[in-house]
Prior knowledge:
- By secondary structure, this protein is of the alpha+beta class.
- It contains two helices and twelve strands, in the order H-E-E-E-E-E-E-E-E-E-E-E-E-H.
- It has two domains: 1-32; 35-208, Porin (Beta Barrel).
- It has helices at residues 2-31, 184-208, and strands spanning 40-50, 53-60, 63-70, 80-83, 89-96, 104-109, 112-120, 126-131, 137-143, 149-154, 159-164, 172-177.
- The protein has a twelve-stranded antiparallel barrel with strand order 1-2-3-4-5-6-7-8-9-10-11-12.
- The two termini are 23 Å apart.
- Mean pLDDT is 79; it is low at 11-22, 24-28 and 205-210.
Amino acid sequence: MKIRRVIIFLVAAILVISIVGSIGGYLVFTKSFQEPDKSFTLYECDVKVIALSTKIEMKKEGNQIGTIKGKVIRLVTDPLILYNNSETQIGYASDSYQFIGQDNHSIYVNNEFVCDMVGEWKLFGEQYKLYDSQRNYLGELKVSPFNLLGGLFDQNGEMVAMYSSPFWRKDYKVQIYEGCTFDEYSVMLMFASYYSDYEYDSSNSNNSSR
């Protein structure tokens, strides 16, 4: 009985530390998170999950501009494919597994390499470093704990796009600011790649807790 109580106590302590740490991480993230005083274009992403396949419908200022399809909730690595409104493939994000840290992704648009997203291990929240084909640093993508708020930053640390998602829904929004050096489809694939990792981790956590 004593061993059982100790185990229960340790599990409860780990859960409390994890929750408190995540809340603290979110508060620290939002405190240092400053939205640029620039005009932006709003993109709304409607996430639809059917079995293991996922479709993300993208709207720009209310108008449909394309769809990202793939196995967001997946058992193995799987690329995300970007289609325009004519169902023509115009981009994709490859996916390579990392045991520690988030997966790595390579972004391609119009048959051209855009960047590598290198997942980095963080105790709270998610982070990816971005590199070009010569391994030159381009910036980074960071998202807070709980998948609520995130940003895409250029190599000078200036935010060029912002990600937000309600706690109770899978859908999310992206604001791309004036002067962003990445094209809109590249930005959408970057955040979709992060979202893929997040959903995969969440589904694994839920399954392991059953």
